[in-house]
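pls design
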C-alpha cells in the first residue's frame, strides 16, 4: 500500500507535467530552457518526474547557519527545531484588541525581545512592516537594524534585485567579503509562490541573488483550500508540493547544492467569507504533513508556528497557537517562521501574544523532553527512608532536581494571586519590561557600521534616518 507521501508526490508529478508552473522572471525561463525544461510562450514550464527529481536530489539534507555570535549557530535539518520571528505583519495589536499600523519603533522593540529570548537563535526578517520606512529601501533598512540590534542568525525579507544586491553588499562587509559569504550560510529568506502554480518576478529576483551567494532559501507555498486551491486538503497539498519542488529545482539549476528548505503554510479558507484560517485544525494537519513530505524528499522543513486567527490575546489565541506549535514540534519541523507573536491571519503582531507564545514553546519543549529513568530519578533508598509518614519537600534530592525536572513558568498563574483576574496580564507586562531592561546591544565594529551607512547613503537613504535607526 502506498503512503500518503507517495500519493501526493505522484499527483504533484502529474500536475507539473500536465498543468505546469508559470515563471514570470525572464532569466528564470532562460535557465529552465537551458536545462531542457519545456517552457511555453506564457512562461509555463512543464517538467517530467525525472527532471524534477534530478535537481531536487541535489539539495542538501541538512546545513549549518552561522550567526555573528557563534553561540547562536544552528543546524537546519534532522531533528533540530529552530523558532524564527513573525513575518510580514503591517499591524500591531494592542492589549485591548485595537489594531494600529506598525512603526519602526515596533520593529526594533520586537528585535530586542527576540534577541533576549533563550529559545530563539534566529532574528530579523519582516517582523512587522513599518509604516514610517521608505518603501524603496524598507527591506534593506530592516536588515541594517537587525545587524545593529542582534547577533543571531539572520532572517531577511525579499525585495527587488537592486535592493537585494545592496543587502548582499552589506552582508559581504559584515562577514568578510564575497568568498567568505559564499562559504558559510549566514542569512536565509522566504521565497513564496503564488498559488495556483506561479512564481513572480520580485520573489525570483531575490531567489537569484541568494543563490548567487549560496545563501539558504525557504521555498514556500501558502495554498488556501477552497480559495486558491481545491477545497480538499489532499488536492491543496498536491498543488503546494508541485510549487515547492519546482522552486527547489530552479535553485539547484542555478547552483547545485545550494541549501534550501521545503516550506509549506497551506491551510484552509473559511467558507463563510473566504478568510484565511491559519489557526484551524486543517492548517495543523497540513503543517504536520509538511514535515513528512520534507522527510520524504530528504530536505529540511518549514511550517507553522504559534498561529492564530484571534483578534486579541484571548482563549482562541491560546488554544490555536498551542495546537499549531505542538503539531509542528511533533513533525520535527526544522525552521519555524511565525514561531511567536503572530495573530489575525498573519496581519498583526502582538507584544502580549509574543510573551504567551514564548511560554507555549517552553511548555511544548518540556513535554517533548519527557523524563529519564535511572537510579537517580527513582531514588529507592529515599523512598524507603521517607516511607508513609514523611515529605519530600525538604529532601536533598528535591533540591537537586527542582530546577531541572519541573518547568517553572514565567507568566502562567498558579496558586494564590493578589489580583487573579489580572495576574496573567500583569505577569506578561513584567516580563516585557524585564527583557527590555536587561537588553544589551551586541557590539559591531565601527568600520562595519560606517561601511553600512555608506551603502545606505548610496541607495538614497537620508543621513537623518540612518542615524535615527542606529539610536533606538
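designed seq:
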Amino acid at each position: 500500500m502506498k503512503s500518503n507521501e507517495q500519493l501526493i508526490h505522484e499527483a504533484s508529478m502529474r500536475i507539473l507535467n500536465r498543468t505546469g508552473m508559470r515563471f514570470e522572471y525572464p532569466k528564470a525561463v532562460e535557465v529552465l530552457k537551458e536545462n531542457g525544461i519545456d517552457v511555453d510562450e506564457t512562461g509555463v514550464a512543464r517538467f517530467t518526474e525525472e527532471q524534477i527529481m534530478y535537481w531536487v536530489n541535489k539539495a542538501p539534507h541538512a546545513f549549518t547557519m552561522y550567526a555573528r555570535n557563534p553561540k547562536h549557530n544552528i543546524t537546519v535539518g534532522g531533528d533540530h527545531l529552530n523558532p524564527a520571528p513573525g513575518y510580514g505583519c503591517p499591524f500591531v495589536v494592542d492589549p485591548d484588541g485595537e489594531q494600529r499600523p506598525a512603526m519602526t519603533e515596533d520593529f526594533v522593540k520586537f528585535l530586542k525581545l527576540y534577541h533576549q529570548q533563550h529559545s530563539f537563535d534566529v532574528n530579523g526578517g519582516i517582523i512587522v512592516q513599518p509604516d514610517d520606512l521608505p518603501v524603496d529601501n524598507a527591506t534593506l533598512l530592516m536588515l541594517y537594524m537587525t545587524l545593529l540590534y542582534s547577533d543571531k542568525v539572520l532572517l531577511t525579507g525579499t525585495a527587488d534585485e537592486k535592493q537585494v544586491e545592496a543587502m548582499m553588499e552589506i552582508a559581504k562587509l559584515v562577514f568578510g567579503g564575497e568568498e567568505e559569504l559564499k562559504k558559510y550560510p549566514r542569512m536565509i529568506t522566504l521565497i513564496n509562490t503564488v498559488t495556483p502554480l506561479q512564481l513572480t518576478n520580485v520573489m525570483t529576483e531575490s531567489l537569484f541573488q541568494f543563490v548567487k551567494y549560496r545563501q539558504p532559501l525557504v521555498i514556500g507555498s501558502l495554498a488556501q483550500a477552497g480559495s486558491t486551491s481545491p477545497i480538499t486538503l489532499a488536492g491543496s497539498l498536491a498543488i503546494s508540493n508541485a510549487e515547492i519542488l519546482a522552486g527547489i529545482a530552479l535553485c539547484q539549476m542555478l547552483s547545485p547544492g545550494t541549501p534550501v528548505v521545503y516550506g509549506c503554510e497551506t491551510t484552509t479558507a473559511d467558507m463563510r467569507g473566504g478568510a484565511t484560517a491559519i489557526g484551524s485544525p486543517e492548517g495543523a494537519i497540513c503543517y504536520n504533513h509538511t514535515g513528512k513530505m520534507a522527510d520524504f524528499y530528504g530536505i529540511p522543513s518549514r511550517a507553522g508556528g504559534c498561529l492564530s486567527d484571534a483578534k486579541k490575546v484571548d482563549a482562541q489565541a491560546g488554544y490555536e497557537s498551542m495546537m499549531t506549535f505542538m503539531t509542528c514540534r511533533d513533525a520535527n519541523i526544522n525552521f519555524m517562521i511565525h514561531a511567536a507573536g503572530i495573530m489575525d491571519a498573519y496581519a498583526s503582531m502582538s507584544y502580549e501574544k509574543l510573551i504567551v507564545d514564548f511560554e507555549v514553546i517552553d511548555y511544548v519543549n518540556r513535554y517533548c523532553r519527557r523524563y529519564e529513568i535511572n537510579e537517580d530519578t527513582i531514588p529507592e533508598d529515599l523512598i524507603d527512608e521517607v516511607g508513609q509518614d514523611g515529605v519530600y519537600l525538604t529532601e536533598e534530592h528535591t533540591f537537586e532536581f527542582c530546577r531541572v525536572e519541573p518547568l517553572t513558568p514565567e507568566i502562567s498563574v498558579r496558586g494564590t494571586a493578589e489580583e487573579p483576574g489580572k495576574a496573567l496580564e500583569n505577569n506578561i507586562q513584567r516580563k516585557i519590561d524585564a527583557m527590555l531592561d536587561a537588553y544589551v546591544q551586541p557590539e559591531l565594529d565601527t568600520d562595519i557600521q560606517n561601511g553600512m551607512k555608506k551603502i545606505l547613503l548610496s541607495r538614497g537613504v537620508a543621513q537623518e534616518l540612518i542615524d535615527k535607526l542606529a539610536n533606538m
